[in-house]
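Researcher: Let's do a round of design. I'm pasting the structure tokens now; please hold your answer until I've finished.
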């Protein structure tokens, strides 16, 4: 039987407790008010987002309750220090990772600040509480048909076509004004000759996927660069698929996470320099080529 997220979380917290010594648990949905122990109270998992590649982001929220001796001042200080220790442990796990097996791919573990919840009835123990969140990704059970955007990096026949999909969950288009100005995410203006060639800006946004080849290539570019682009619908075009393609200016920007439990965000901005209609072929190793038919008029825009 496959392990559940709750079992994995329970085992990880149990390993942390063993390092503390003398504390029982963690018990699921339960604590003993007259014995130093830890209770783990899960609220379950919820889907918090999905990207174009079929990766779903999930969170598993939980609450920790700690029962500790609190008759003396030093005991209460030790209890608060233990809560701080758990937060530091969660940060360490976020950096090192946690094996989730078939339950998904680990993303982060976050713990809030501990605080006194209430004194136990015996007057000798206090119950402390803090919240936590485990974030992870898993593949959707069924992938939906979707449009595909690929960008070509490298010269000629050795060009690798990388798909902009992993982590990406939103796309916006903007028509450029004839007398407008083009800027990247850092406020740097694009060359004047680029301004004369384009009238459309497209932004892709989502979360950073450090393992994704396209995001790696885009974020490595310190300056906006001209690359090839292809847009098509349907499965991988081993036999050639109707597509549109051309050249564009591309830049990427990684944005700091908005909160400790959120992943860093990524934004990709392109300015279309040309667009033609044609067919696209791609091999299993990522190489491929786009064969244009003829320029697309105003009615053929994406």
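Researcher: That's everything. Go ahead.
Model: Designed sequence:
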């Amino acid at each position: 039987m496959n392990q559940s997220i709750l079992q994995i979380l329970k085992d990880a917290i149990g390993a942390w407790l063993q390092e503390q010594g003398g504390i029982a648990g963690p018990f699921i949905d339960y604590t003993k008010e007259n014995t130093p122990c830890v209770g783990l109270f899960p609220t379950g998992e919820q889907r918090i987002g999905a990207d174009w590649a079929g990766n779903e982001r999930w969170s598993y929220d939980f609450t920790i309750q700690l029962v500790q001796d609190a008759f003396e001042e030093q005991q209460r200080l030790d209890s608060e220090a233990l809560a701080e220790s758990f937060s530091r442990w969660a940060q360490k796990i976020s950096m090192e990772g946690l094996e989730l097996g078939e339950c998904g791919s680990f993303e982060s573990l976050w713990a809030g600040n501990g605080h006194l919840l209430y004194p136990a009835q015996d007057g000798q123990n206090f119950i402390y509480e803090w919240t936590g969140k485990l974030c992870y990704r898993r593949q959707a059970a069924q992938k939906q048909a979707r449009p595909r955007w690929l960008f070509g990096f490298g010269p000629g026949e050795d060009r690798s076509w990388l798909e902009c999909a992993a982590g990406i969950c939103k796309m916006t288009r903007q028509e450029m004004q004839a007398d407008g100005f083009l800027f990247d995410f850092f406020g740097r203006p694009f060359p004047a000759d680029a301004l004369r060639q384009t009238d459309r800006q497209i932004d892709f946004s989502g979360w950073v996927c450090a393992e994704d080849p396209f995001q790696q290539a885009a974020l490595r570019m310190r300056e906006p660069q001209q690359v090839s682009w292809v847009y098509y619908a349907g499965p991988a075009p081993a036999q050639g698929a109707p597509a549109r393609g051309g050249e564009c200016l591309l830049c990427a920007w990684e944005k700091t996470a908005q909160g400790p439990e959120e992943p860093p965000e990524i934004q990709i901005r392109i300015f279309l320099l040309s667009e033609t209609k044609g067919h696209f072929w791609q091999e299993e190793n990522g190489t491929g080529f786009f064969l244009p038919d003829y320029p697309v008029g105003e009615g053929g825009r994406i």
